[in-house]
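Quick log. Single chain, no ligands specified.
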Amino acid sequence: MKNHFKKRRKYLIWNSAVLLLSLLLTACAPRYYYVKPLPPPLSIEDIVDRSRQGAGDTDLIREIDESGTVLYLRSADIFDLKDKGVSERVIDHLITVKEWTLLNAAAYPETESENVYVKRPESRRFVPISIH
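-> predicted structure:
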């Protein structure tokens, strides 16, 4: 009877060690995930075209965020966008995105890469943008 318990105990210890080792190896394994590539940034003409085609403000703003579009608008560009029918909400968002980009670049001046990752307001993900 004692021999039976010794074998069972040895079996339990061996199985516990294998289980612990497999859990440790699984926890240390790298995790790979797919990152969806960003669509190309929108130009001023693209924004005007989509606005004329009847795209809603929310859809247009989402498309601007998903593409990582940052436009450095001059006052003439802003007036031009207004004259061509782009809503004030979209124009305000374009200005806000530019301000967030500049603030982020000022906060991390040591960034050597051309891409700076910005967390935009009301967004849950970081989007790479190019600063020129």
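Residues 20 and 26 are 10 Å apart (CA to CA).
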